[in-house]
Structures are given as C-alpha cells and as structure tokens.
Amino acid sequence: MHAKLIALHDTATSIGAATSSGSRETLVDVVAAAKSLNVDPSTAVSIKFLEWWWMRWWCRVGSGGRLDFNLKKLKKMSNEFESELGEFEQEKNSATASVLKRILLNCSAQAKQYGSCVAARVPEVERDMCLKEFLLLKNCMWNLHREQENVDMSGKASSSNHHGLNVSGALSHVYIQYPPLRCTLSGTRSFLYDDGNKLLLQLTSDRIFSWKTAPYDPNVVPSSDPLCEGPVLCIRYSLDLKLLAIQRSNYEVQIWNKQTGDTFSQKCRSESESILGFFWTDCPTCDIVFVKTSGLDFYSYNPELKSLHLVETKKLNVSWYIYTHESRLVLLASGMQSKSCTGYQLSSAGIIRLPRFEMTMAKSEANSKPILSAEDVHIITVYGRIYCLQFDRVAMLLHSYRFYRDAVVQQGSLPIYSNRIAVSVIDNILLVHQVDAKVVIIYDMFAESRTPISAPLPLLLRGFSRASESEELSDAEIIIYGDDWSFLVPDLICDVANGFLWKIHLDLEAISASSSDTPSILEFLQRRKLEANKAKQLCLAIARTVILERRSLAMVARAIDVLMTTYSQAVKAGSYQKRTDTEETSPSGVSNLNSPNIVVDESSGIDASGVQQEPARGIENESSNRFTQSTSGSDGSVSFESKKMTSHNLDSSSGITEGGYMVEPEASGAQVDSSVVQSQILVAGNKALNANASEQQESQVSSAAISPADLYRFVFAAIEEEMLGDASYLISIIVEFVRSASFEKLKVDPNTYVFMVQLLARDERYEELGLFVINKIIEPSKEVALQLLESGRQNIQTRKLGLDMLRELSLHHDYVLLLVQDGYYLEALRYARKNKVNTVQPSLFLEAAHASNDSQHLAAVLRFFCDFIPGFKNTADHHAYCRIVADMNSSIAT
Amino acid sequence: MGLSSGSNASEAVKLCVFDLRRGQNEGQELDKILFFYPADLPFSTQLSVTGLSEGLITFTRIFSPEAACDVIEAEMHSHVFYEAEPDIWMVMVVEKNKDSEAIWRIDALRRVLKEVHSLFVMFHGSVRTLVDKEPTGGFVRRHLYYFVMDYLSDFFIGKKLQLPNFRDSLKERGTVQMLTMGREAAIDVQSLVRVLESCAGNSKCYSLTMFQDLLVSTTLSPDDTVNLYTYAVLRLTPQALSSGVSSWSYLRKGSTACNTSAGAVMANSCPSVDQYYNSGDTSPVGNHSYHVVRPLQHDKWSRGKDGFLVTDIWGAEFGSSIPTSPTISLKHIEERMYLCAYQLNSLTVILLIPVSSVLDGVQGIATVKQQILENASLKMFKVEEKLLRGWGGENAYHVGGYRYLLVDSDRYISRASPPGKVTTLTKDSLIALSKLREEVDSEKIRANSDGLGHEKDLEVCIRAKNNAWLIARLTRGKELYMVLEKANETLLYASDAVEKFSDRYCNGAFSLE
Question: What is one term from the GO cellular component aspect held by the record (chain B) (predicted)?
C-alpha cells in the first residue's frame, strides 16, 4: 500500500511538474484509479489537489501562453473536487481512514474555501489568486500531517517518505544534508555568528566556542577562548583572528588581544548616543567600525598603545543598520519610517559612500506609516553584484535594489506568500524562503528576470535515516522552517533550539529535471560554480537527451549555442582550465584575510584589476568532499560597477566582469585549455591522451563550461549507436554545432570531423561529404584525411578528397605512399622528386610498375632511382628488377 | 548524301530521335521516328537520315556491340550519335559549310543531346516507358516534340539554330558552376539546408541551393544535380525569370530570341505532331484529351507573393485554381518528387519532397511551404545577405592573363573565365583550342575503352600559329584547358604559368612537376 501510494504520488507530481501535459485526469478518474489500485481514494484526491495546486501555480507564473491552458478543465476539476470532498465527509467514520484522508477531512473547511474561491474565479486566472485560502489550507494539511506522522512513525519501518508533507516532500529543489554540524554544548544555547570569519560562536559562562563554517564540515572541532564574565551583546573576531571584540553594553566595546592577553575598552563619548553594533573591516584606513545612533566611527587599532584610534566619523542619525562582510557594505537606516538608507562600502580600495535612497513601502491605510525594520532588509551578493532586498509587508512584495557605484536602482519586485521570509544565496542563486508556507522559491538574478527558476517546493532534509539515528535525534527535533531557525549569510541555517547548523544545498538535478525550456536551463546550469562538475555533467546529459528525443533542430541549435557561448566566454576569461590547486588550498581563516577588491576605476578596467587582485579565497578542495564546498564562491570579487559605464548594456558588461569568471593571475593567459591544445596536435592516437586528460579535468573543473571536444566525446559519440537509424538528424545537429563553434571562433576537435565523415559515408551521402570537405566545413587534418581514404573504399571521389587533403596538408610521405598504392607510381615519382620525399621504399614503386606490366614504365622507374639515389645500382632491388625488365623485353621480342 | 535539301540556314542542323525496336517491317520505317527536326522536312528526307544512321549502327555493332557508333564525319556533314536509352538513339546532323562559324566539337554537340534527354527523363520518365505506354507512339511523340522544341528554342538566334561551336571551347555543358564561399557562409548554408530538409517531417527530402546562376549546395547525386541545376538556370533563377537580362551562363544566350522561336513552335506544332499518327496503323482516339506538360516553356514561372515560384505548366487540380505542384523524377530514387522552389533576391532554394510523403497534394505542399516560411526564412535571409557580401560579381572568377576552363569530371563541376573575357580571344586561338579539345576528347574515349579503370594523366602544351599557348592538362579526373595569348614564347614560361594557376586556384592539383 505504501509503495503504491508513493508511486501514485510520483506520477501525480510528475504530471504536475510537466506543464505541457495536456491530458489531465479529473478527480473522478483519479479516485477510480486509486480504487482499482487498492489505494485509499482520499490519498489520491489529496495528491490530485496538490497537482491542481501545481497547475494553478503554473497558470500564475507563466506568461500569456500558459494562462489559457486547460482553463475549462480546471474549472471542472475544482467543482468535482468539492463534490468529492462531500463524499468523504459522509465517510468520516470509516475505519480505514488513512493519514491523508484525515488530513483532508480535517482541513475540508479550508479546502472547500479554497476550492470555491478558485472555482469562482477560474476563467480569470491571475496572480496570487486565492492565495490566503491556499496558504491556510496548506498549513492545515501540513500541521496535521506532521502530528499524525509523529504518532505513526513509532510503529512503522522507515522509508524515504517522512518529512513535512510528503506528498510534495519527495520533490524538492533545495535541501539540507544530514548530518548537521552539531553545536550542542551543555549549558547555554546562545549562538552568535561572526560572518567576517564565518564562525559560529557559542557562549558558555566562561568560554567562547567557535565553529568554522567555511568550508562546511559537519565534523569540525570547535576551538575555544576564555571569556570574561559579563553581558555579551555581540562578538566578532578581527579578520586575522588575533583580536576579539565584545560588545558589553550599548556604550562599551571590549577588545581582547589573544596573543598578549591585554584587554581594553572603548566607550561612547557621550550618553546621548549608543552603540548599535560594530564590525571589523579590511579597509586600509581603519580596522574596526562602530555603528552608533549618531553615525559611524572608524577606528584603527594601535597595538603599541593598546587602544583604538579614531580615524574618521560620519555623522548620521541611525535607527538600525545591517552589514554583511561578503558585500563589505553597511546600510544605515534613518528617518521616521526608517526607510531612508545610506550605504558605505568599506573595502580594500577604501571607503565608498553610496547615494542615499528611499525604500518603497506600500501603505495599508491612508494615514498609517509602517516602519521598516532591520529584519525586513537583506543584503545579498550574486554574480559579484550587490543587491538589497526589502520585504514590504503590506504589499507582500520583496523589492530589490541594485547598488552601483554612483547609483542605487530599483530592479523590480518578487511576490511573497508568507508573513515570515528569509533569504539565502547559494552559488549566486537567490532563495526566498516563504517560512510560513514552508516552501522556498528560487531565482536567478543573472538575467534581471523576475521569474522563478522553478515552482515553489519545500526544503527537504536528505540523508537522514530514522532507524539508525533515532537514539540521537528524535522526530521532534527536525522541524523544517521551525520557529527556532535563523538564517545566516549566505547559505546557512542555524537551528538554535537543537544547536544544529545546516548548510543549504541546491539540487541542480531536480531543478533541471523540472524545466522544459532546455536552452534556459542550460544557461542556468552553465552559470553554476559551486558544483561545476555536476552542472557540467547535467548539461551533457541534457544535451544527449534532447538529441535522443529528436527535439526540433532550432531548439537543439539554441541549446548548443548556449553551451558554446559560455565556453567561449569562459576561455576568454580564463576560468576554463584545470585547477592546479595544491598551493591554493590554504586554510580559510587565512584566505579570509585577503581583501576583496572594489573596483574604483570608472572608465573601464573592471575585469582587469579584478583579475589582478583576485585572492585565492573561495578555492577549496572541491573534490575532497561534496558537501564541504566553498561558501564564498564569489564573495571576494564584489564590485560596484559604474552606472555610467554599464548603463548602455548592463548585462553584457557584467557578464564578463563578474566575480565567478575571474581567476588567479598566474593562471590567466599562460594556461590554455588542455583539450584545445590537444586538438591542435595532430596525433593519430590522441583519443587516448584526450581521455586521460579529461578524466583528470573532471575531478577538478571549476567551471561548468563544456569544450567542443567534450561535447563531441560525451554527447555525439556517446549517442552514436542510438542514433544509427537517423544519422541525418545527427548530422544536422553536428552542422549546427560546427556553426555555433565557428561563430564563437572555437576550434572543433578533429575527431568530430572524423565522426561526420563516418556518418555521411555510412549513409552513402558522398556528395554532401564532398561539399563539406571542399567548402572546408570539415577542416583538413590528417585524421580526417585518413578517414576519407578509409570511407573512400566504396567511393573513389571520396578517396580522392582524402588524397588531396594529404597533399594540401603537405603530408608528402603519406601522399606518395598512397599514390603508389593506387598504382599512380609515375605521378608519385614526379611528386616525390619535386617535394624531395625520400622516405618511401624504391621497391614499392618498382613493384607497382611491375604490376602494371609495362616494361617501359618499369625501366623508367628503375632509371629514375639509378639517377637519383646514390648507390641504388648496388642494391638487390636494382639487380632483381634489371633482370625482370630484361625478361619482359625479351618476351616482347619473341 | 543529299540530306541538306534546303538552303535555309536553320536546316543546316537536323536532330532526330528514333527507336530501333519499332517499325521492323518494311513500309513501317516511319514508325521508328519519334522526333525529327526540322519537322517540316519531307518524310523521305527524314527516312534517309534515320535509315543511314540505323545502318551505321547495325554495322558498327558487329565490331563493338557495347558502344556502337559515336560519329560519322562526312565531307559535308557530321553525324553525332548518342544512344540515350537501349535502342533509343538520338542523332544530330550538322553541316560543315564554308560558313566560318560552323566548326564543331563533336563532344560538345553530343552533350547537347545528352542534356535534352536527361532533362526529358527528369520530367517525363524514360522515353522507353513512354513508348510502351501507347503503341502508336503518339504519346511519346507529342511529349518529345514539345519538349525538344522548347529546349531548342534556347539555341535560336534570330531564325537560326546556333549550336555550341568553337566559340564555346572554354565551356563545358553538363556541369555545374559553383559559388566559392567562405567557411562561415558555407556552414550557414549547410545549416539552412538541414532546416529546409527537416521541414517536410520525417521523409527524406533533397535540396539544391543556388545563388544567382551558381550552385551553392546540393544533397542530390551529381547527375541529378546537373539536371536540376540546368533546369533552374534555364527557367527558375532570378535571371531566367526576368528574361531580358543577359546571363553569363553557357546555358542561356540572350533571351530575346526565345520568344519568337517559342512562337514558331506553337505555330506549327499540331500538324507536325499529327503527321506520324496518320502514318501509323491506328489513329489514337482523342489524341488531344491529355494535357502535355511543357516544363521548358518560356515565361511560365513567376515568383509568388510568398516568395515561392509558381507555374501553371503542370495544370491545376480539378475544380481548383491552385496550380498543381510540379513533380520530377530522379535518377537514383524510384519515387517521384515534388519540386518546391523558393526565391529570395538572388537566392533560389529548391526542395524536393517525395510524393508519397505528402498525403493530400496541394494541401500537403502548402503545409510544407508554411513550415519553410516559419523555420527557414530568417536563415535564408541571412544566408543571402552573407553570400551577397562575399560575392565578387560576374567577373569574380576571372584570372588576369588567363583564359581557362577547369572541369572536375567526378563531380560534374566546372569553372571558366567569364564569357565576356573569353570573347577577347582571337578566333584562331579558339579554333585551335577547339581542335585541341577534340583530340583530348578522343584520347579520353580511348583511355575509357581500354577499361583499365585508371585515369589517364595527360599534358599538352601547344604553340599555336598566332603564338598563343594552348594548354590541356588532365590529372586524376580533373581537367584544365587554358589559352595564353600575349605570352612569352618559351615553354618554360607556359608551364610556369600553369603551375602558378594550379597552386593558386586548384590547391595544387595540377602541379606535379
């Protein structure tokens, strides 16, 4: 029963995920199917409900084209849904009522509300239709299910099917991996996060424990320092970890030198101001910044005097502030509504003041003036750009602002479906956690598009096997989106109640599986840096699939274009190469000291100076552990782009300069992609070489970019057998590939051309093959020439093409040899003499001349060698063939 | 031999098609004749031509059953023979009069016969099947008559039938001229071709792409390519559609003459065709009931609003005004193909779709056309633009100082100095070249009949009376003919010139020394 349930659920969700599925069963069908499968009908109906929800979602998300799909069916379904619910209410007392049925029954009120709301509005499907009803229903189901599960699970053997509302739980695009990093010390449960050093800090009465969170390793051992008694508001280690600053009160910050043990305090100068917080900075002019209600104080640390020296003060009324170390940006809120913001970026390049800007806030009533609070504003860093996200609780929108050096520009808004939200960034992907709805929506801000990458799905816990871990971790402990969760920048979740630290992961596979728009999903995958190899493999798999599915030529061509364009960009930026990462695996504590570079140069030079200064941060040994990957993929290269410069073409200029593409200075330029080099070396046996090199490469790729050689090896060659029946389609694809590569000025691997020749010859399309060769679409190479000769066994014209190619490549030896083999020994001799080829055995010419049974020719060949090869007259060949010529002449004479 | 009865200049040429299997009995000899030009010659004259030809064929078959007879050189005439199909012979008789223009190269004439027959087969199927279709021969006669007359109309200059003579020595009939393009353009063309051929669903389509009168790409076999290319140059390309524009192609003369001659065909068509029916045993009933398709008729193609070329040559379907789509048959493929041509400025794209794959005729073709417009029009636009940018114009393939003809006999591709440049050669040079080619032709035939399967390499360098160098080089299926006037007198100079040309323009194919 359980297995069947899962199976049914899978089909339902997959139907839901496939937006194009035209034939949806009605609820009646589902119930009938469920009955025949001996599955509880209510299960099926609730599954159907979810599917229905899916549909609703897609109707809403999609633009014009999707809106009108199946509207009638939707309406019909919603009506049926209600009647089904009625039936179930009658069966309320049935002894066989299952978990899901119970859910459905208990939430029937909400379900009905929602259903009727949708039914009432169905012809005009619109954004956020019946959202409130939906969320109510969903919450009801969720809570009930969780309760039920907790009761049930004690008696049941484990299965993969037990987190959250499982109907949707199995499908997820974002997950946290079990086990978490456990910070469960006895005693206190107070956690602090030092984002400058990426340390999770926990305080006990006399010690401070710190867990390194980058690279993320669940088994990391905490280090500890003694701590003096007293209140602690905030703690941050200096960026070199030598100093510890503790905010003791609103007026005092204490600084302790770990090495010397010295302690001193810095206090506010007057009672009229108070310290809101502080942070360490790697700005050259100062070391620590205090944020006070009256403004910013920049201090530098003086080791000799054991004191802070005030460098500069910025006067400003501050109601609250936010700071993230990865952006080096501090945002100061002021004004009645706290919505007027001023930003400072304190980078290695100095202090940049950003223009003041106002956040947008909708008013609930005419006279009300909502006050913006700090937790509703988030600074995020994606693709090296800095955004500020502001949650407008009245409008239920998440506004985004992008920071340029000289401007702050509002970029658009994202819809919000929850009263509590959280924001994470993984691998330049923005995750908006709709905490109340217990789903997460993911956005890729790259293309300035405000469309989610995929439908909202819950966060999933993976790798947790209840049976084995039950003694350590009870059910109650892991509550997805529990109240005790706090979200740390950029991609960590701290479960304060349990002392767990989770790292959020993206499931690229699931994301790519849920999208039908192949070119855009490829673009998405190509931008991934964190799991570059996985993204690359996924791209290759997608490429194989679209070809095997015989998708339209235009679509496949666009997909190939995407891959070639990103590869070309990666090569230009130098990020496509093997990692020589032995010297780069420095401890993250040290690497964090490196400064991010803020580019000040206004005219150009963003990428240039970026490359020069790019530190080795963020380069962790990716192959050691899949889940201990860098959390700081791009944070070292945050840059403000000059608005003036980028305004004419924001996307393209940023695409090149963005942090992810930058590389170590010693690597750029000097190293070239190994496969590109190989493709230029015309070694017959380079297939094997290539394979080895690529395997090494795979474990170390830093970019998802796919070289033309890889595309050939892992896509075209890999699917050759399956495509045997339809070579012409495959040829068309390869033509598109060659076009795309040529457009990007990329070199195509000779093996690809050899493959083309084979395909065309196998189909006996020699005329096209000829055109391909004559027009140099198939670029000349020895491999191709040899393949033409091979394929030319059945077609003399093709063989000639091969011979001509050898001649044009100046492969004199092979050319002469083949001429002789074909019986053109006189031509071969002439050619050999002209091009001074002396590596072909005279005996071959003589044999060929003998075979032609022409004594004159044989004599001529013999004479040739006598004249041109010193000492030939003394060889055995000479004697033997002299006799033969004599014999032939005498036989003619007689 | 008394064949040239008329003093009319047009009668200096006679062309006949006859079937040796017909009219075996005495008194029925006329039945053999399937076509005769000029049609108004008395039967006795016609019979004497066919009778002499048949006699020679029968006689020479005794010695050479496979290839009976190529040519008879009489004092006043040359008889050019071509066995188009087993026992279907085409004979052309040309007069060697004192008219200085009447200097022929036999192979060039035979290629005319070959061309008209190939085109006929492409549109109507083999002559033999048509003969078998109706025992009286009326069916095949009617088809041959219209077809050959329409074909010959292209050779009329004024009232005179001007067959290719020595002035066409630097031309090779039965070959295609290709556009040379850069790799990028070539890739784009191939990409376009793939898209086009995928427009008709899963069935295997073929295509031919042309820019002006030059071939850009083909997926057909070489001989089919030649046929379709020839037809396209004659009737479909932009130059052919806008008659009056002169062409540099050997296939078309100035087309002012076409109309008058086409009119001439119309005027005397019916009696001339009917005369054979009456001479036959049975008269076909309702011999006008069938519509004779005349693919070579002039001014019948035009470019439609959607860019597709339309014609009413193939008639219209019953009860509809939409013209029937043309169909042709290819040599190596059993099935007949719909011919669907699209034109965008200088770009002409011909798509061949198997008849069986299009279920409901007109409607099906319309769907394919719609697909082409949707999927390929942007690509075609880009390709046309790119080719136009890379094209060097009419004289693109002129090489200063050289007058040349380059033939790839494997692929039926040729390239030659532009006609405008060839006319600058003196008559003497051209006549000498014609003779040289005649020699080379016979040498090739000899090598073929030796049947070694070994391509003969040949090199001839002649200093003509007018001090021009005449050069012919054959190597491994490629031929190069060249005239160098105003050249230095040493042989070394001539051979150096060839070498340079070969390295520069032929990838060194002719530079063996």
Answer: Mon1-Ccz1 complex
